[in-house]
Amino acid sequence: MDLTWSEADLAFREEVRAFLDAKLTPELRQAGRLMTSVYADHEASMEWQRILHERGWAAPAWPVKYGGCDWSLTQHYIFSRESQLAGAPSLSPMGIRMVAHALVKFGTDEQKDFFLPRILTGEVFFCQGYSEPEAGSDLAALSMAAVADGDDLVCTGSKIWTTHAREANWMFALVRTSRTQKKQQGITFVLVDMASPGIEIRPLVMTSGEEVQNQVFFDDVRVPKSNVLGEIDDGWTVAKYLLEFERGGGASSPALQVMADEIATVAADQPAPSGGRLIDDAAFSRRLADARIRTEVLEILEYRVLATVAEGKNPGTGASMLKVLATELSQTLTELAMEAAGPRGRVYQPHATFPGGPVAEFAPPPDGYVSGEPWQAVAPLRYFNDRAGSIYAGSNEIQRNILAKAALGL
């Protein structure tokens, strides 16, 4: 790989910077910089998606015929990094980065024509219905039943850890349409209208106090068979393809590099327990240096995976590798941020942040007082949210098993 930026790439970087300077309002920048997890404030995220869609940049990784951008690998990276540096809020990955790719590969013409344009505009907002109370990392153990009845599948059961289920108007889900000796068989991938009768949503209060995730109950919910993606009983094929994009379809390294730089900056002004500046503390600076080196390694690995995607191929085992490295590195950085935040970073004050969902049972002070700087208020919420990073999208233990079997032949 040639990592040298060409004159055209440098010109593209200036184009991106000019666009971000012109279109990112102070409110949107604040929503991006004060995110408490991988999910931005919903309203800010949708507003930023609207602005990007107007420019044709909402889904640059899609095929051009569906609204994507004919960008080089370097241009994708430049756009991602410059967006992070500018403080842009993230877009929800469920539609643009995940189910859209499955629609492109497995969808009928009618499904593509209906969903893809509406995902771009935000008119269709997806949530993911994968995990169940008894099927998380072992996703193939799912049991939510879908019984054929004429032109419909009648779905009964529940899904859990469903991010933004209350905001979504569609869900992509895996359901059990038959039972065989091999549990990966008999699973079907369906697109569910969240306005369908029989759906009940109950929010889950996370350790951070946020209500971003939910449990969704289905009581004889009718899903037209025309909403099946791929073939009935062969949804595992679709799910595996989609999971590779969930685990490694984007670039995590720019955001992690920005986080590491911010930690280094604030640590230069924070006292160390032993005296002096925190950045001069040998143990702290060694761990920060190690994390920054790992972000550079992650960046190179992401180049390889993005190059594969750019060629129209799926990421394969590279996605599992990136998922492990990126989530564990993010956890390391949030731990360092908590240490840099000091005692004021232990104060629970979500009113100073932009959470990804409502905050339960919290009354902010009448005068809006914040102890310390906003980044210190963000640090504990990011820390708590990031504990889930090594679990969601398939736990890291499962990813290591995949790598051991598929990449190492063990």
From TrEMBL:
<dbReference type="Pfam" id="PF00441">
    <property type="entry name" value="Acyl-CoA_dh_1"/>
</dbReference>
<keyword id="KW-0285">Flavoprotein</keyword>
<dbReference type="Pfam" id="PF02770">
    <property type="entry name" value="Acyl-CoA_dh_M"/>
</dbReference>
<comment type="similarity">
    <text>Belongs to the acyl-CoA dehydrogenase family.</text>
</comment>
<dbReference type="InterPro" id="IPR046373">
    <property type="entry name" value="Acyl-CoA_Oxase/DH_mid-dom_sf"/>
</dbReference>
<protein>
    <submittedName>
        <fullName>Acyl-CoA dehydrogenase family protein</fullName>
    </submittedName>
</protein>
<dbReference type="InterPro" id="IPR013786">
    <property type="entry name" value="AcylCoA_DH/ox_N"/>
</dbReference>
<keyword id="KW-0274">FAD</keyword>
<dbReference type="InterPro" id="IPR037069">
    <property type="entry name" value="AcylCoA_DH/ox_N_sf"/>
</dbReference>
<dbReference type="InterPro" id="IPR006091">
    <property type="entry name" value="Acyl-CoA_Oxase/DH_mid-dom"/>
</dbReference>
<dbReference type="InterPro" id="IPR009075">
    <property type="entry name" value="AcylCo_DH/oxidase_C"/>
</dbReference>
<feature type="domain" description="Acyl-CoA dehydrogenase/oxidase N-terminal">
    <location>
        <begin position="7"/>
        <end position="123"/>
    </location>
</feature>
<keyword id="KW-0560">Oxidoreductase</keyword>
<dbReference type="Pfam" id="PF02771">
    <property type="entry name" value="Acyl-CoA_dh_N"/>
</dbReference>
<dbReference type="InterPro" id="IPR009100">
    <property type="entry name" value="AcylCoA_DH/oxidase_NM_dom_sf"/>
</dbReference>
<feature type="domain" description="Acyl-CoA oxidase/dehydrogenase middle">
    <location>
        <begin position="127"/>
        <end position="221"/>
    </location>
</feature>
<dbReference type="InterPro" id="IPR036250">
    <property type="entry name" value="AcylCo_DH-like_C"/>
</dbReference>
<dbReference type="InterPro" id="IPR052161">
    <property type="entry name" value="Mycobact_Acyl-CoA_DH"/>
</dbReference>
<feature type="domain" description="Acyl-CoA dehydrogenase/oxidase C-terminal">
    <location>
        <begin position="233"/>
        <end position="407"/>
    </location>
</feature>
